[in-house]
Specification:
The protein is an all-alpha fold. The protein is built from 3 helices and no strands. The protein folds into 2 domains: about 30 residues, no CATH class; about 50 residues.
Length: about 80
């Protein structure tokens, strides 16, 4: 790593500490639950994607995928009509 960039990395914890003290002095409080929200959204998204892929793989195993693929158009949209 270039020495000039290394100084910025070395000072990052100090800058975070100064910003936290400034925010606390101004009366801003960091809610612990607000920190968890992005992780929960990500976890729910990953779980949903895994469940959908599991369903698709089960359909492939049961050879139901031909019916499912019939509804997919070449432009990427999905329609069963």
């Amino acid at each position: 790593m270039h020495p000039k960039h290394r100084i910025g990395v070395d000072l990052l914890p100090d800058r975070c500490r100064v910003a936290a003290r400034r925010d606390r002095a101004l009366g801003h409080v960091l809610d612990p639950f607000s920190i968890l929200v992005p992780f929960l959204v990500f976890a729910i998204g990953v779980s949903h994607g895994a469940q959908k892929m599991n369903g698709v793989m089960q359909d492939i195993g049961r050879e139901h995928i031909a019916w499912w693929l019939h509804g997919i158009r070449f432009d990427g949209s999905f329609s069963l009509a």
